[in-house]
Amino acid sequence: MSTEIQRFDFKGAALRTLTDEAGEPWFVAKDVCDILGIDTNHLGESLDSDEMNTLRITEGNTRGNPNKTIISEPGLYRLVMRSRKPEAKEFQRWVTHEVLPSIRRHGAYMTESTLEKAVTEPDFLIRLATQIKQERAEKEKAQAQVERMRPKALFADAVETSKTSILVGDLAKVLKGNGVDIGGTRLFAWLRDNGWLMKTGSSRNMPTQKSMELGLFEIKETTVVHSDGHTTINKTPKVTGKGQTFFVNKFLGHREITQ
Predict the structure, then answer these.
(1) In the 8-state DSSP scheme, what is residue 162?
(2) Are 212 and 165 in contact (CB under 8 A)?
(3) Are residues 93 and 9 in the same domain?
(4) What percent of the chain has pLDDT over 90?
(5) 124 lies in a domain?
(6) In whole angstroms, what is the distance from residue 193 CA to residue 27 CA?
(7) Strand pairing of 231-239 and 166-167?
């Protein structure tokens, strides 16, 4: 995931974003919560694990904890629905009608300051064009990988022998691309209801012993260093290559994988 921050301004409030390898936008959770009037301490109760992540972001000489919680585009919309502030709908419209189309069309948000740089700094457009070219190349590479994960490849060798694990939300995208009407939230619920992920407690959304023994999941651990110096471990379930094939087979009615 790119750690290059793009800064936007919503009525004087900062909104920082960045993009992942597939070109999908992520938002710094604190900025979104400040705008929507939501307590950041309860994000885990509002969002699924694939809708939030922790990333080390260093911005110049800014002090404080560099590990920032970021949320996905679907996660942002869920927080908008929770917000009681009258500006929530206006904020969502601004994001969907201005910020996201500009990012996806140009690879950058063309604010007045950006345009001023383009005029006053001769090398700025060259740097911007280089950045856009690199981001497009990365996006095309990621898209090519998704194409390779479609049914013909899935049921050949590509995924079964893959060493790349993906998030549950990414598996939902693969399923949706193959005609299965499901999103990340519904897929998490299905996995819990069918005994592949745990349902309750601190281990909610973690793989069950059965799914781990079958090699369908692995757990990614991320160390978070807090501002007071103490550390915590964030755990995220990821679907292995074998797991990807297993669940796609289940949804599309093909043969099941045995141990």
Answers:
(1) -
(2) no
(3) yes
(4) 19
(5) no
(6) 30
(7) antiparallel
Average pLDDT over residues 233-257: 78
Which of 211, 146, 135, 138 lies closest to 173 in space, CA to CA? 146
How many domains, the chain? 2
- The 10s digit of each residue's pLDDT in 40-70 is 887 888 888 888 888 877 665 556 677 789 9
Give yes or no: residues 172 and 240 share one domain: yes
Q: How many CA atoms lie within 13 A of 92 on its CB side?
A: 16
| Burial of 175 (C-beta count, 10 Å sphere; 0-12/13-18/19+) | buried
Could you tell me which of 19, 10, 3, 14 has the C-alpha nearest to residue 108?
19
Neighbouring residues of 67: CB distance < 8 A, sequence distance ≥ 6: 54, 55, 56, 57, 224, 225, 226
Q: Is residue 81 part of a domain?
A: yes
Q: What b/e string do you get for 183-194 counting C-beta neighbours within 10 Å, with b at 16 or more?
A: ebbebbebbbee
CA distance 156 to 38: 46
Measure Cα distances from 20 to 138, 183, 190 in Å: 9, 19, 26
